[in-house]
Amino acid sequence: MVGMKYDMCGAATVLAVLRAAAIAELPVRVTAWMCVAENMPSGRATRPGDVLRMLGGKTVEVLNTDAEGRLVLADGLVAASLERPDLIVDVATLTGAISVALGNRHAGVMGDDDAVAAYLDAAARAGEPAWQLPLPEHMREDLQSPVADLQNAQIGVSAGGSLFAGLFLQEFVGRTSDAADAPRIPWVHLDIAGVGMHKGGGFGYTDKGVTGATVRSLITLLANPA
Fold this sequence. Notes:
Layout: H1 9-23, E1 51-53, E2 59-61, H2 69-81, E3 88-92, H3 97-102, E4 107-111, H4 113-126, E5 130-132, E6 150-151, H5 161-170, E7 187-191, E8 197-198, E9 209-210, H6 215-223
Parallel strand pairs: 2-6, 3-7, 4-5
Antiparallel strand pairs: 1-2, 4-7, 8-9
Helix pairs in contact: 1-6, 4-6
């Protein structure tokens, strides 16, 4: 459990953005959902093979208990969707695979192309490197579980770990209305596992330690909504 303080950087980012938006009195309505979990063993701890029923009713087979972040994020996405916002952004130190793919200075960005483009523009203006990754249709079958609607991880498969997590989260983003053919609410997923903590020497205005990555970009996005 050493170093797990860093695992709450996503929730800390959400809180920081909400507070900054309020202090700056930005002309936009923002609701923040901090998706947190007590990562501690107990008699009620989740076990490999457990099936959970999520907030929206979907069931998830838990194959990796260390992939708990995406489980609490899933409930948060459902809760946020119920408010039918114009945009949903989630932020999490979600996967070690994002560091393998992009290193430690680029945030991984996934989601709807128009929403992602707006975020990337804001990130460029804020001076925070970010890179869009795909949500491949051919990988959706990897989400399937024989005993639930979805599985939260693939055992023994290291390829595309960040993409799998993004596809998993997308399953919990709601629709713009109750109509069966309504499009999903515009959504951006930020995987900051590679950029949330800087272990080396400082660079630019980034010091050693927790970086606050994506806070500046999200404030820029809120200050200049499409």
